[in-house]
Design the sequence.
RNA sequence: GGGGAGAUACCGAAGUGGCCAAACGGGGCAGACUGUAACUCUGCUGGCAAUGCCUUCGUAGGUUCGAAUCCUGCUCUCCCCA
């Protein structure tokens, strides 16, 4: 068992804030003395089943807590998802059916346990306590917090000042999350910095219900592959942990050199000392690509396997560095009858799923982005004689192999 | 309950009777460049049987030779007052 200070050091690495640190120390000490592990709460929204590298930042921190002997209480926010979160810009965010939620929760867990230790994880659904609350219970809960305090939340106050709508339901969310903490009796809760407000509300709610408030550990939000906005599926700048090894590797290689160091800090298992060393090395002339490949390999391996990551690296090198055509690619099946006497290029591109409309196909052809077997096609009414195994290419990185 | 403002393409935002498939910016895609799928530069970015035609400016009607633009109802949002 590690000492309090040793544990704090591990917890602090990569964390943005620990609120309040002395309370956390106290909790760790009590845990050591009593031999009872701390209960570390983490909530997940099962509306999007694909977890990406951004989610893995807190997950890795949870794993560190587990390795220190503590228990993770993983809350699936099925009740939350059932109600449907109206926050943000998407006005008509759909409400999920309970079947969808259960399915998402299942795939979610599959992915989460690539990182977490199953033995030290308690998975719970917040519907099991939230759906049982009566309206008087809800009134009691809402009476314990004020509108002014709600408006302290950054995005609420911004929207309020900017004349953007805020639904009452959104005010309820922090309260529901806080109630979750009461229900699971959490000692510590983890979340991204965007969750700071909700995590703090939970402390107040716990106190209101006569419990000892949880300590809070906030973690940075990982920037997406664009290097600017936070990684999110809706922004399309994410790297999913269940993506094919080649995609994970390739997307990691596409990040900027600056962002690479950020990823090293937040995702890599390498020590900070080693990372600093690498930075110096690059500053003195080493091609950053060398280190980017190491990062890409490490992360790809984590979510697939060493052989798969190796294959991904080879393919990347062959396609992007030697400009060769990848060995493996998506295929498109056509019947021999369809292509006897050739097939017109627009139809071919659409059949291959490389474009969505004929107009788009014409544009791409004009731009010189279309190749068949590495030969550029410029005629948008060209009729192409094709055969089995021909390769259709759009741009640098979209390939389809034709199968008759 | 009363008064006012608004809803435009993936997002933000201009346009206020014909020159509007709709400026500009962001995003996306492509081309050039590159160690790179980064940066930068350039082009494209509603659809189609394509020098034309069709659909689109919250929604349903109306006025007009002609409507994103004017009128009316409806839906939704914001602000002020009570």
Sequence:
């Amino acid at each position: 068992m590690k000492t309090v200070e040793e544990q704090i050091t591990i917890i602090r690495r990569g964390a943005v804030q620990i609120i309040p640190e002395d309370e956390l120390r106290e909790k760790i000490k009590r845990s050591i003395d009593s031999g009872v592990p701390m209960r570390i709460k983490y909530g997940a929204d099962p509306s999007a089943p694909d977890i990406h590298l951004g989610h893995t930042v807190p997950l890795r921190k949870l794993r560190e807590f587990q390795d220190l002997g503590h228990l993770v209480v993983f809350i699936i926010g099925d009740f939350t998802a059932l109600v449907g979160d109206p926050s943000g810009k998407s006005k008509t965010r759909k409400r999920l059916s309970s079947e969808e939620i259960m399915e998402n929760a299942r795939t979610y867990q599959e992915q989460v346990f690539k990182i977490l230790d199953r033995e030290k994880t308690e998975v719970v659904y917040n519907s099991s306590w939230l759906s049982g609350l009566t309206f008087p219970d809800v009134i009691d809960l809402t009476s314990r917090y004020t509108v002014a305090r709600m408006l302290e939340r950054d995005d609420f106050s911004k929207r309020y000042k900017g004349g953007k709508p805020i639904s009452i339901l959104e005010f309820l969310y922090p309260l529901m999350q806080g109630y979750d903490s009461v229900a699971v009796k959490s000692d510590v809760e983890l979340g991204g910095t965007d969750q700071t407000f909700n995590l703090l509300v939970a402390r107040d709610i716990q106190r209101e219900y006569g419990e000892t408030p949880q300590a809070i550990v906030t973690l940075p939000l990982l920037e997406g592959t664009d290097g600017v906005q936070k990684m999110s599926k809706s922004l399309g700048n994410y790297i999913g942990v269940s993506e094919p090894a080649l995609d994970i590797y390739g997307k990691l290689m596409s990040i900027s050199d600056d962002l690479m160091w950020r990823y090293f800090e937040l995702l890599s298992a390498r020590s900070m000392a080693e990372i600093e060393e690498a930075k110096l090395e690059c500053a003195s002339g080493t091609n950053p690509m060398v280190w980017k490949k190491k990062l890409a390999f490490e992360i790809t391996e984590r979510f697939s396997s060493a052989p798969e990551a190796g294959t991904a690296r080879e393919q990347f090198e062959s396609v992007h560095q030697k400009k060769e055509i990848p060995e493996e690619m998506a295929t498109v099946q056509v019947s021999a009858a369809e292509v006897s006497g050739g097939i017109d290029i627009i139809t071919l591109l659409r059949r291959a799923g490389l474009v969505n409309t004929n107009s788009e196909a014409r544009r791409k052809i004009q731009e010189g982005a279309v190749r068949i077997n590495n030969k550029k096609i410029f005629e948008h009414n060209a009729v192409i004689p094709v055969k089995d195994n021909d390769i259709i290419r759009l741009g640098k990185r979209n390939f389809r192999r034709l199968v008759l």
